[in-house]
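re the bet — no i am not wrong, look at it urself. input seq straight from the record:
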Amino acid sequence: MNKAVVVFSGGQDSTTCLVKALKEFDEVHAITFDYGQRHRLEIEVAESLAKDLGVKAHKVMDVTLLNELAISSLTRDDIPVSHELQENGLPNSFVPGRNILFLTLAGIYAYQIGANTVITGVCETDFSGYPDCRDEFVKSMNDALVKGMDKTLHIQTPLMWLNKAETWALADQIGALELVRKHTLTCYNGIIGDGCGDCPSCDLRKAGLDDYLNNQTTVMAELTRKQSGQDI
């Protein structure tokens, strides 16, 4: 049986990946991480979406130790999310080590259930500058997990080379545009759907959606080109 584990936050990107995976794999498991994040409503959103989509199993894992170690606007309520970059060139919403931990635990979970694929919605093309969303990082993690567990494992990143407009196009292509638009949580201030309209995450989401809705034919054609050229 062809099984996959999807790292699932209940946001736009991971929900698009989850719906896509459900069409491509015999059995899909979702794993959501509770790290004491600022927008904790995302856990409830993820649980609701997983149930509605008929996911085989949805595991919510407590990793709140990350909250104690990683100082970020997403782990500290007294640090406002800023549009400005820090001295190190990263946004203050960057949670150091988050995807290292998430992919490691997802890989262990995949090992236990006999899945050879882990799917994550990270993206290098249209992202917030996080170093743990880059293709080079994911490939390194994949290599480490294979060597460390002596198991065949492939980390898929369906959105890696898509901009946000193309991610919306992909959601539309798989019949999930309205689901993603109305029922996912991407907003750093915890507002479902179109969000607060002010945080960096909402800015990126809205700009991509506007681009797609205003240029559907062009954006969809570019998505199809990338798919046929195996860019994703």
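see?? The mean pLDDT is 87. told u. also The first strand starts at residue 3 and ends at 7. so pay up
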